[in-house]
Amino acid sequence: MLSDIEIAQAAEMRPITEIAGELGIAPEKLEPYGHYKAKVTEELLKETACQPDGKLILVTAINPTPAGEGKTTVSVGLGQAMAKIGKKAVLALREPSLGPVFGIKGGAAGGGYSQVIPMEDINLHFTGDIHAMTAANNLLCALLDNHIQQGNALRIDTRRILFKRCLDMNDRALRNIVIGMGGKINGVPREDSFQITVASEVMAILCLASDLADLKERLGNILVAYNLDNEPVYAKDLQAQGAMTALLKDALKPNLVQTLEHTPVLIHGGPFANIAHGCNSVRATKLALKLGDYCITEAGFGSDLGAEKFFDIKCRYAGLKPSCVVLVATARALKYNGGVPKAETAKPNPEALKKGIVNLGVHIENMQKYHVPVVVALNKFYTDTEEELQIIAEYCQQFGVQTSVCEIFAKGGEGGTDLAEKVCQIVDHQESEFQVLYNTDLSLKEKIQTIATEIYRADGVKYLSKAEKALKEIEALGYGNLPVCIAKTQYSLSDNPELLGKPEGFHITVSDVRVSAGAGFVVVLTGDIMTMPGLPKAPAALKIDCDNDGHISGLF
Fold it and tell me: What is the value of pTM for the model shown?
């Protein structure tokens, strides 16, 4: 059996100009990065702005497990399947972060015969977007520390600097550091910390910005510190926004690539959903809606994180109206939620499946709270039994939800035509009545309480003293009307990764709260969540290699 990278490397790619041409994009509206990937120009974005929108389809999933769900694989396969049934679809996906690529996940461009290519490029440096965000973020940090070194005219309190440096790699040793050591010439010593680039506010800003002017304004509004009078200091006070925008002007343009079956894909932006808002850029999604009759996009991790933020943050700000939710599940993952160890999830076990299937039920109910039709995509493994698949289908019927058994990993688009037809039947004949979960006029605590009880099914919320203090400061600054972005473990509906299935009798514990004033939301940290992940005992990097001819192997 071929690995994902072997399948991708054996694929016949078409020149990106041909893929663009089928979307009506002229060659001069592309900025090629080689033969098979390109950025689109600002002119194209402006030209298409007045065109009618297609239908927006969100792909999300149950809580992720080591047994695997395949959300990106289903997204890609659904796009390919749309073409098989004669529909014009454009995918809008996130860029992979180097952190998980070399850490625990491996590649992140789909799998099997439902992949986005060139797979190595997408999973590694791609067009340099994330590197540009890292540079812009760290430029602001450098300007901040230089300002302090050169006399500190803004009277910045070095004990109350909020903005962190970043790196697009899992490196736990950088979570907490001391900088400015080695004498006066090397700066003012202070405690500092790093987060992974995809959790940074710069990433969130780029993904939510509508154009360069909006990007610059948002960057200037980043709250970086407080001064000695307890007053806020913003990036614009350091005059940093212009230079940061210069570094990000090309990164703001969406990237065009293709699937194995030459379906067009816009890949742009990559915020994590467990510690950021988990959606690709607004610009890429809106362009995909203009270029295709259907835009298929995904949100990170389970629907309790990615989909909630997609609806309550991205759709709220961008004015998007999703027509359908595709909720991905596997029999293996549901058995894992029922207490079966990963090594035994391939074995038939209807009883464990019936126990763990409650996790799927919560996600279905949660998506229905947004008044958007739901279809469950059962990503089939060859070990799944008909009895198990039937149990899932009958369970979903209780919620009035259709299911579709997908074999897109093994068969590509052909294995997803039933899903494509069911999705089209819904979006073409059933009007979405989408609405967000909460009103931003509520207090921050009320918004957090709403998500915790309605989506996570917690009994309530507990706040540590640090979080209580931060909430008061944020509301005093006038940011109490912002939506909230909750950072939480992806492995459970609760903030405890060990609680699988449908946890009951728990509270969400908020450890800290931070305002992302430029992005336009308040980040709420729960449990033991970290904004700089660490590497596992055996990182994926140990299997990745490159031979003397530049041939990459081991990338998933």
Answer: 0.95
